[in-house]
Automatic annotation (TrEMBL), chain A:
UniProt membrane topology term: Multi-pass membrane protein
Coiled-coil region(s): none
Name of the protein: Peptide/nickel transport system permease protein
Keyword Transport annotated: yes
Superkingdom in the source lineage: Bacteria
CDD domains, per the entry: TM_PBP2
NCBIfam families: Opp2C (NF045474)
Transmembrane segments: 12-31, 76-96, 117-141, 189-211, 231-257
Domain ABC transmembrane type-1: 68-257
Species of the source: Cytobacillus oceanisediminis
Location in or out of the cell: Cell membrane
Keywords: Cell membrane, Membrane, Transmembrane, Transmembrane helix, Transport
From TrEMBL, chain B:
A GO biological-process term: peptide transport
Domain ABC transporter as annotated: residue spans: 4-249
Originating species: Cytobacillus oceanisediminis
Highest taxon of the lineage: Bacteria
Name of the protein in its database record: Peptide/nickel transport system ATP-binding protein
Length: 273, 265
């Protein structure tokens, strides 16, 4: 089935559906995700509460919808900041080269030397729990990948005759970068970013699960998993549902990333592998 | 009047000398062919004229003068006013001559905008006129992207772009190597016409002595980083002095006698 998902346009459809769901989430949520109702706690799946209620009697379906906004919104924010930080640094580093390039790339190497989860845990642990510290920590481990990719694309492009010709035509460096290079770089970077989106969602959920990210009562899938673990025997759906949500969303993003990669891969137009 | 004068140019990569004691001078309206085997330093010499040498290659002595300006002392910012306007290039790889995701017109426009203060309409009409001059369907090519044109069309568009600002010196680095021989002849014919119109000097780098005989009035032969012989094309081809030049000319297969094996240089 996964292969069929990949080859058809259903990936785009799923992605589109999901994005729409995120945007309209507050309007279709049947309850306030933070509304506590102790008389109605740990209820199983029912018609009134599609996905049951949690240990404080909050509607799980509404919390999942709101959590999608937190989790996915945060991951988009992380991606955007990483791109804005990494891509310009990579561009400049690759295009100017020389000593500046060596210095910047040693900094990147230093960041890359740490396994990303460990670095993110240490950083957000040092800064203290909270969603903004979490964003900062993940950006710190993620921007280097984009800097590297942007740099390597620039290095390949720099060899091409059309860049040389733009140069011999007297076009300035800024214009060469902006008009002749960035479109190439962005294509590659977008593919990496979509493939990364799934990993970042997973990372945010993981860090929230161990208590470093979103704090209660913010609805966030990882944090929901964390809160639910005490009630696993009585209400297993409290853990299953956010877990499944994370799995599905990461799967969608990965498939979408694969699709984009194949789409941009000129050598592999048939999509065969 | 001499457009380009290269005197005693030596280019090094660390300890290794790539090009030694080059002396060249090209006059207005001249077509100078630089011939020689691969690795003889032809392209290094031509890149050094436009200041396009990779960082690792250093001009260790000598100078390059264009008009009255010493090019080898120019700073990166000063270069910009000379590149495209005073010196322009045509390269071998026509497919790589234009940025793939920009239309030909946009690239003409960008170049004109860099050097002139013309209005948008004027820039466009200049570009169209220039494309017309090289026998291209101007309107269509102006709107096209590089992949929509054939090799010959692209190379002609590249010539149009290189000559649009009427440079004093046009450097053609093996412009026809990647084209088939009929298209190559057309392209060179066009280049010759453009040269007549603008009266620019052409530095023509090639492997093909037939083209040299047909188009160039002067030639210089390079080997192992040095110019071994130079002079008027007819004189050099008829009475080669240096052993290497003799060997080069002897290596041209003759149409009349086909029995002998080709000479190896």
């Amino acid at each position: 089935m996964i292969n069929r998902l990949r080859t058809t346009n259903s990936v785009i459809l799923l992605m589109g559906l999901f994005l729409i769901a995120i945007i309209i989430a507050p309007f279709i949520a049947p309850f306030d995700p933070n509304q506590v109702n102790m008389a109605n706690r740990l209820k199983p799946v029912s018609l009134e509460h599609f996905l049951g209620t949690d240990h404080l009697g909050r509607d799980v379906f509404s919390r999942i919808l709101a959590g999608a906004q937190t989790t996915v919104g945060t991951s988009f924010l992380v991606l955007a900041i990483s791109l804005l930080l990494g891509v310009p640094i990579g561009l400049v580093s690759g295009y100017i080269g020389g000593r500046l390039d060596r210095i910047l790339m040693r900094v990147v190497d230093a960041f890359m030397a740490f396994p990303d989860y460990i670095a993110a845990i240490i950083l957000s642990g040092l800064l203290g729990p909270g969603i903004f510290n979490l964003i900062f920590a993940i950006v710190m481990v993620k921007w280097v990948g984009y800097a590297r990719l942007a740099r390597s694309t620039v290095l390949t492009e720099k060899q091409k005759d059309y860049i040389l010709i733009a140069k011999v035509n007297g076009v300035g460096s800024m214009n060469i970068l902006r008009r002749h290079m960035i479109p190439h770089v962005l294509g590659n970077v977008m593919v990496l970013a979509t493939l990364d989106a799934g990993k970042i969602i997973l990372m945010i959920a993981s860090l929230s699960y161990i208590g470093l990210g979103a704090q209660p009562p913010t609805p966030e899938w990882g944090a929901m998993l964390n809160e639910a673990k005490a009630f696993f025997y009585n209400a297993p759906h409290l853990m299953l549902i956010p877990g499944l949500a994370i799995m599905v969303i990461v799967l969608i993003f990965n498939l979408f990333g694969d699709y984009l990669r194949d789409y941009y891969d000129v050598k592999n137009q048939n999509g065969g592998r | 009047m001499s457009v380009l004068t290269i005197s005693n140019l030596t280019i090094k990569h660390r300890e290794e000398t790539l090009v030694q004691n080059i002396r060249l001078s090209i006059n207005e309206g001249d077509w100078l062919a630089l011939v020689g085997e691969s690795g003889s330093g032809k392209s290094v010499t031509s890149s050094s004229i436009g200041g396009l040498l990779p960082r690792e290659l250093i001009i260790s002595s000598g100078s390059i003068h264009l008009g009255g300006v010493n090019l080898s002392s120019l700073k990166e910012k000063e270069w910009r006013t000379y590149r495209g306007k005073a010196i322009s290039y045509i390269f071998q790889d026509y497919q790589g001559a234009f940025t793939p995701f920009m239309s030909i017109g946009a690239q003409f426009d960008e170049m004109l905008k860099t050097h002139l203060n013309d209005s948008k309409q004027l820039r466009k009409s200049r570009a169209l006129e220039c494309l017309n001059n090289v026998n291209l369907p101007a309107e269509r090519v102006y709107k096209s992207y590089p992949f929509q044109l054939s090799g010959g069309q692209l190379q002609r568009a590249a010539i149009a772009m290189a000559t649009i600002l009427k440079p004093k010196l046009l450097i053609a680095d093996e412009p026809t190597t990647a084209l088939d021989s009929i298209t190559a002849a057309h392209v060179l014919q066009l280049l010759a016409e453009q040269q007549k119109q603008t009266n620019c000097a052409v530095l023509f780098i090639t492997h093909d002595l037939r083209h040299v005989r047909k188009f160039a009035n002067k030639m210089a032969v390079m080997r192992k980083g040095e110019i071994v012989e130079s002079g008027m094309t007819t004189a050099v081809l008829k009475h080669p002095k240096h052993a290497y030049t003799k060997a080069l000319i002897a290596a041209i297969p003759s149409l009349k006698q086909t029995k002998e094996r080709l000479v190896t240089i």
